[in-house]
């Protein structure tokens, strides 16, 4: 059974935790989302190959819900669609961290402590040195599994354990330890927009809560072209 990131595992921003308490205390009226029947919608699709849906994930290296989403939703979905041109994945490890420029470098404070910052910059460097999605996700899958299981105690040991994925251990290690990783992490911070919690998924610029439950379905719905057969669910 796949466990979706729930209120227990999602990592709320501090503001959002307060807002949620207020929302729970009030009666909420929401509009009903009206779903278009697929056969009606189909006639609107262009027959030209559409651009892939840009899937952007904000996450943190030690956030339980992020870990679950990456291993149980993102990577299995990618495995199904990688040859279809349906989605384009961008990972942004930073989430609810904060940063400050001090003493000539960026100092980060991470939601789950300093080890999470180690994991974030490690993943930032992996993403930088392995931009191709297949390879990147193969490495991230290994890193996420080991780093999380060991509570982020030794990121360098985690990196070495994942050497068999083909990760460039030397470059990534030097990056994560030095100025390069520090600057790259700051860029990810700048590219982390407003969000209420992590994992936070953005499909073509619009945040999607539905994607947390069923990424494939959400991506298929966001796709502007004729949906590939993997979308026949
Ligand atoms: C995929 O996303 C990256 C940003 O991470 C962007 O630079 C690139 O143009 C996108 N590719 C397509 C085909 O949309
Ligand atoms: C995905 O992002 C790239 C780069 O920003 C952009 O050129 C492209 O149009 C986006 N794709 C869609 C479907 O919005």
UniProtKB/TrEMBL annotation:
Localization (cell): Secreted
Transmembrane segments: none
InterPro entries, per the entry: Interferon-induced_GILT
Keywords, sorted A to Z: Glycoprotein, Secreted, Signal
GO molecular function: oxidoreductase activity, acting on a sulfur group of donors, disulfide as acceptor
Protein origin, superkingdom: Eukaryota
Keyword Secreted: yes
A Pfam family hit: GILT
GO cellular component: a single term: lysosome
Record keyword Transmembrane present: no
Similarity comment: family membership: Belongs to the GILT family.
Listed name of the protein: Gamma-interferon-inducible lysosomal thiol reductase
């Amino acid at each position: 059974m796949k466990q979706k990131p729930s209120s227990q595992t999602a990592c709320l921003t501090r503001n959002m935790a307060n807002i949620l308490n207020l929302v729970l205390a009030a009666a909420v009226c929401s509009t009903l989302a009206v779903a278009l029947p697929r056969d009606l919608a189909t006639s609107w699709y262009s027959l030209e190959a559409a651009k892939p849906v840009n899937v952007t994930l904000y996450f943190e290296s030690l956030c339980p819900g992020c870990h679950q989403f990456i291993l149980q939703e993102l990577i299995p979905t990618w495995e199904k669609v990688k040859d279809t041109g349906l989605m384009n994945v961008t990972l942004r490890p930073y989430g609810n961290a904060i940063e400050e420029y001090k003493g000539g470098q960026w100092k980060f404070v991470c939601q789950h402590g300093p080890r999470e910052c180690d994991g974030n910059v490690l993943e930032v460097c992996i993403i930088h040195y392995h931009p191709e999605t297949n390879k990147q996700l193969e490495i991230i899958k290994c890193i996420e599994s080991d780093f999380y299981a060991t509570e982020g105690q030794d990121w360098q040991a985690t990196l070495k354990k994942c050497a068999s994925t083909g990760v460039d251990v030397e470059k990534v290690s030097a990056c994560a330890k030095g100025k390069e990783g520090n600057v790259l992490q700051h860029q990810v911070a700048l590219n982390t927009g407003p969000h209420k919690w992590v994992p936070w998924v953005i499909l073509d610029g619009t945040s999607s809560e539905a994607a947390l439950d069923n990424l494939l379905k959400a991506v298929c719905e966001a796709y502007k072209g004729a949906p590939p057969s993997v979308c026949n669910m």
